[in-house]
Design goal:
alpha+beta; Immunoglobulin-like; four-stranded antiparallel beta sheet; 14% helix; globular; signal
Length: 161
């Protein structure tokens, strides 16, 4: 009786043959993003793959209302991790008093009157889900990929109430 086995070199050759086709299939493009792409893999910084900053409130802004219910960010372009998987991101607000607010997942939004720091501006918003900002606090905002192994949220800027 002969036991069938596959040599390791045949497996390696088969994998090397298939990998370019799998990669090419994953690079198919065009169309609008549903924002539900795969979670970007990172064990370090929660990298959006592009320049991104606070839009509303803006970084460095003072006197932000404690009743603010939405955080808006602006990113450069739509050929990046953030655009392809924005529903996997949220914003973390950390106050100098120790309060932490985690927003809803991001939504793609329109803001014709928003800041225009980049050649191609894309806006995203996140709700505070009824959580209230503390008066007289300074908040640092971070972009986070939830359910991800990334260890360090991406800094967006800070503002004060």
């Amino acid at each position: 009786m002969r036991i069938h086995s596959v040599s390791p070199s045949r497996i390696v050759r088969a994998l090397l043959f298939c990998v370019p086709f799998v990669v090419a299939a994953g690079c198919g493009g065009g169309g609008a993003s549903s924002g539900t792409g795969a979670v970007p893999i990172s064990n370090g910084l929660c990298d959006p793959g592009t320049a991104v900053q606070l839009a509303r409130p803006s970084s460095g802004q003072f006197g932000v209302s404690t009743g603010t219910g939405v955080i808006e960010i602006v990113a450069n372009g739509n050929s990046n991790n953030l655009y392809s998987s924005y529903t996997m991101y949220d914003v973390i607000l950390q106050s100098n008093f120790g309060q932490q607010i985690v927003t809803s997942p991001l939504n793609l939004t329109s803001d014709p009157g928003g800041p225009k720091p980049y050649a191609s501006d894309y806006y995203y918003s996140a709700n505070l889900n009824g959580q209230t900002l503390q008066s007289g606090a300074t908040y640092s905002a971070y972009l986070n990929i939830f359910n991800s192994p990334c260890q360090q949220p991406f800094p967006l800027g800070s503002f004060s109430t």
